Amino acid sequence: MTTPASKPPQARGLARDGVRMLAATPDGLAHATFADLGRYLRAGDLLVVNTSGTIAAAVDGSRGCRQADADSQLVTVHFSTPLEESSTDGAIWLVELRQNTAGRERVLDAAEGETIALPAGASLTLLHRYPENDSDRLWAASVTPESKTEVTVDQYLARYGRPIRYSYVPDPWPLDAYQTVFARDPGSAEMPSAGRPFTGDLVASLIARGVSFAPITLHAGVASLEAHELPLPERFSVPEPTAHQINLARADGRRIVAVGTTCTRAVESAADETGAVRAAGGWTDLVLGYGRPARVVNGLITGWHDAEASHLALLQAVAGTKLVDAAYAEATQAGYLWHEFGDSCLLLPPAG
Questions:
Q1: What is the pLDDT of residue 66?
Q2: Domains and CATH numbers, the chain
């Protein structure tokens, strides 16, 4: 049985890097804390980190066009990612509707053309289900931020939004609690949480040990996928210096360790069939798994999340089924905490 972390580590009396870490290596499984990460890395290892910052992507709204009692009209809108830039018809965003209740269940009966009223005169209109009109919860929506002022959706969210949270986190926490030490480029609806346990001191100590860091950016959308759903396309960028660092590390036989599934997806999206990485950006729809194993990334730092099909397949694409299954079984037995404020896992499969 898994237990989600209901609050940030600092609220539990821990430093960010004080969370538990399960190290799964060729030598077996070892229990440690995240501050011990340097014990399992070596000089020359390259850590790929995500510079995407978390945005305040949840906004309360009202389904004012529906004939229902007042309570049933209240919803929370999760803004996932922009699909099109602003136009005369408003910006087009991918959104999810949740009930404005303690359980925050999904709204599944929304209809095409329905308008959701938002604070300060803003509104959004549901255009079509996404993707390919076959989703029962995700929508492409036209968003008009405010009726009397010219602001972007990003500016509107910064003013009226709050971090997305689910029922296992009962209390609100400030946006800073959902940022990593690497965050520079706002754009993720949900925190790239594998990087959360890092601190400035830990980064400095790893650099002193000869571990290198290389940045990418991948803006994560809503993460509440069902087991049968594939990951949605996401915006990413792999800059030229990072591609160069990765190619040099591979040529030297050094390890490329991705900090999170977001980094793994970005790096692998920029790799050709030989594993050479080039500068790249735009949208990626890459799905890693049995049909597409990792060509570049050969180590992974990750949090503990529900083992839905696409997430587990990505971990296995890097570390192999045997190691991932053993790690999940051990973490469950040992009571590791799940989700964005929870504990960590270091996956270092055998070379080759």
A1: 45
A2: 3-54+172-347 (3.40.1780.10), 58-160 (no CATH)
Please give the structure tokens belonging to residue 349. 């499969």
Residue 1 burial by CB count (10 A; 0-12/13-18/19+): exposed, middle or buried?
exposed
Report which secondary-structure segment, H or E, holds 77. strand 74-84
Give the residue among 6, 33, 37 at the shortest CA–CA distance from 340: 6
Rounded Cα distance between 319 and 255, Å, is 13
Q: Identify residue 199 by its one-letter amino acid code.
A: T
Please tell me the predicted confidence (pLDDT) of residue 232. 87
DSSP H or E run through 238? strand 234-238
Q: With residue 139 as reference, give the H or E element that holds it.
A: strand 138-144
pTM > 0.85: yes
Low-confidence ranges of the chain (pLDDT < 50): 66-72, 87-88
- C-beta contacts of 229-233 below 8 A and 24+ residues apart: 229/308, 229/310, 230/287, 230/310, 231/265, 231/287, 231/310, 232/80, 232/81, 232/94, 232/131, 232/138, 233/283, 233/284, 233/285
Q: Please provide the size of the chain in residues.
A: 352
Single-letter residue type at 108? L
Judge whether 182 and 195 are in contact, CB under 8 Å.
yes
- pLDDT for 25 equals 94
Q: Which residue has the tokens 């003013």?
A: 159
For 270-336, give the DSSP string.
Answer: TB-TTS-B--EEEEE----BTTB--SS--EEEEE-----HHHHHHHHHHH-HHHHHHHHHHHHHHTP
The 3-state DSSP class for residue 59 equals strand
Model pLDDT, residue 135: 64
User: Which residue has tokens 């002193």?
Assistant: 208
Instruction: With CA atoms as reference, report the closest residue to 54 among 161, 150, 171.
Output: 161
